[in-house]
Specification:
There is one protein chain. It is built from 6 helices and 11 strands. The chain is an alpha/beta fold. The chain has one domain: Rossmann fold (3-Layer(aba) Sandwich). It has a 9-stranded mixed sheet, with helices on both faces. Strands 7-9 form a two-stranded parallel sheet. The longest helix is centred in the middle third of the chain and has 18 residues. The chain is globular. InterPro entries: NAD(P)-bd_dom (IPR016040), NAD(P)-bd_dom_sf (IPR036291), Semialdehyde_DH_NAD-bd (IPR000534).
């Protein structure tokens, strides 16, 4: 079993990732929480936690961790502190601990934030974090979904290095993709975009891996 630190475990998408990992026979989730009051929710599900604040030192959160899923987000309130600098701190800590794989939940539009009119600061922060990860020598996968919805997942997506269109995707399906890219047979140092689509997630990811 590999220990996977889920950064942003208390968020809507992060919680889904933790639950999926808990049912896995290969991974053990470690939920990173910011407050002690958030521990109970996970301990009641027999899920281990570690206290960590992205605006402070996070090196201690990496003890006995094999892989990382970064699904944290500031919700637009602290994009520089959390989405950019917080991500950089986790990347530095991962490098220091020789983490096997760092899965970054980014966003469509983060490749060219200067071309968007909405959420420009957020996408610029995501862009900078993505670029920092690429240059870090930490093994990575960067996943850029379209607009996130709370609709029930379909288990089907559209995927591409660049999809050249806008759209949405359920958080259920995004969580599935994040977890599947943790597998050792998934390629490293790749970035791709995902939207709701017609291909089963496994088949869709196989297609991007072979491209």
């Amino acid at each position: 079993m590999e220990n996977v630190l889920v950064v942003g475990a208390t968020g809507t998408t992060g919680k889904k990732v933790v639950k999926l990992l808990k049912t896995s026979q290969y991974f053990e989730p470690i939920a990173m929480v910011r407050k002690e009051s958030q521990i109970k929710e996970f301990s009641e599900q027999d899920i281990n936690t570690v206290l960590g604040n992205l605006e402070e030192d996070v090196l201690h959160t990496m003890s006995h961790i094999d892989k990382v899923v970064f699904a944290a987000g500031s919700g637009g309130t602290k994009v520089f502190e959390v989405d950019q600098e917080g991500a950089k701190k986790m990347i530095d800590a991962s490098k220091n601990q020789s983490i096997k794989k760092f899965i970054m939940l980014s966003s469509m539009g983060a490749d060219q934030p200067e071309k968007v009119t909405e959420l420009k600061d957020y996408l610029k922060a995501k862009h900078n974090a993505d670029q920092y990860l690429r240059a870090s020598n930490v093994p990575y996968v960067i996943i850029r979904p379209g607009s996130l919805t709370n609709e029930k997942g379909t288990g089907k997506i559209e995927v591409g290095k660049t999809l050249h269109k806008q759209g949405s995707i359920s958080r259920d399906d995004v969580a599935q993709v994040l977890v599947r890219t943790l597998d050792d047979d998934a390629p490293l140092n790749e970035s791709f975009e995902i939207l709701s689509g017609d291909l089963l997630i496994g088949s869709a990811l196989d297609s991007i891996y072979k491209s």
